[in-house]
Design a protein that fits this description.
Elements: H1 3-8, H2 18-43, H3 47-57, H4 60-70, H5 80-108, H6 113-126, H7 147-163, H8 168-182, H9 192-210, H10 213-219, H11 222-236, H12 252-273, H13 279-288, H14 290-303, H15 306-316, H16 322-343, H17 348-351, H18 353-362
Length: 363
């Protein structure tokens, strides 16, 4: 999800496309904003929070998968070691930080550390983005946003497999259908079914690169208008889109098509933002740091008792929408700790793969 992960996880892109980094920067900010809105809804439900959720969830996770697919080379051999390090090992390292954090909080609150570790250990082991009644064994908690890392690993692997089979699109559609339908009956560990559906978004990104879709949109500007209308309709009729749990709402076709249109619109807006002094630089930096920001955000989201804090925030600043207040409070925390990860030797290469690549090149 970080800049290099999405542009060079397949390893062969040397020149960055900055407006893609800007798009990822916008998307990672929307991840934090939407999670803040969800927390706010549990304390002080509002139309503003609901609108934020509808807008952000309509595109943010599909965008990351689509852009990952855009830079993939599925015809090449699957790089087991590299994929495992960048995705699975990063998942485990972030999970370890969660376990350490919840243990510290339990100690401070005089809670039972054994029970806390058992519950969160189950969440780490299962790797589910949200709580489900359909798990193979009872799991009380969810690991949260880093389900993305597990799902992306499976989606990368599946796309490499399907690319070697005849009628690749048929296998892609079949994978999505099986992942979607089976999730109604059982939810498997390590977000495997989420990966089965996510492979479709990777393939769409890959096809977009093959036909040079962005250039096509620029040559026929009216296509941006169509995309904007579709995205707006999907937001107005939004009734759920959680790639984490293969939930595409009551209108799954509209949710999928709307997410594709939303991704195109965000890319278009990113091309414009890239021309604004300072704005493009800041957002592209966030995009290149999005893996670190995601993982830090996940840790603070799991460890800190935000709902308890939000009551106090809402009472103190009741005139400001609680979703906005929560976002403004959380964002600096995520950015500061993501920046700290950048300067910690060895650890930084897990969350900023571009540093690992830079070291290999210099060697």
């Amino acid at each position: 999800m970080c800049g290099e992960l999405l542009t060079t996880s397949r390893g062969m892109v040397n020149t960055r496309i900055r407006y893609f980094d800007v798009a990822k920067g916008l998307a990672i900010l929307c991840v934090i904003l939407s999670h803040s809105a969800i927390e706010a809804q549990s304390v002080a439900p509002s139309h503003i929070a609901n609108t934020i959720i509808s807008v952000c969830f309509s595109f943010h996770m599909p965008l990351f998968f689509i852009l990952s697919g855009y830079f993939m080379h599925p015809e090449r051999d699957f790089r087991w070691a590299k994929e495992a390090k960048q995705l699975l090992c990063t998942y485990l390292l972030t999970s370890a930080a969660v376990l350490l954090g919840v243990t510290c909080v339990a100690t401070i609150d005089h809670g039972t550390r054994k029970d806390v570790l058992r519950q969160w250990g189950d969440a780490v082991l299962y790797g589910s983005g949200d709580i489900s009644d359909l798990t193979l064994w009872p799991v009380q908690l969810r690991i949260g946003a880093i389900w993305f890392l597990l799902s992306l690993f499976w989606a990368h692997l599946l796309l490499h497999i399907f690319a070697r089979l005849p009628y690749t699109p048929v296998w892609i559609v079949l994978s999505f259908a099986i992942g979607y339908v089976s999730a109604r009956h059982v939810w498997l560990p390590w977000s495997f079914q989420a990966g089965m559906c996510a492979v479709a978004f990777l393939h769409i990104g890959y096809l977009a690169k093959q036909i040079d879709l962005i250039d096509l949109m620029e040559r026929f500007p009216w296509l941006w208008g169509i995309a904007a209308v579709i995205w707006l309709v999907s937001i107005i009729w939004f009734d759920g889109l959680s790639m984490a749990m293969n939930d595409y709402g009551a209108h799954p076709l509209l949710a999928v098509v709307g997410s594709l249109a939303g991704t195109l619109c965000i890319i278009g807006l990113s091309k414009l933002a890239d021309w604004l002094p300072g704005v493009g630089t800041v957002l592209s930096c966030a995009g290149r740091s999005s893996l670190a920001i995601l993982c830090v955000h996940l840790v603070e989201d799991d460890v800190l008792p935000w709902r308890m804090y939000l009551d106090s925030l809402h009472n103190a600043i009741s005139q400001v929408p609680l979703a906005v207040t929560c976002f403004v409070v959380r964002l600096p925390i995520d950015l500061v700790f993501a920046a700290l990860l950048y300067v910690i030797p060895m650890v930084n290469e897990w969350f900023y793969p571009q540093l690992s690549k830079r070291r290999r090149v210099s060697a």
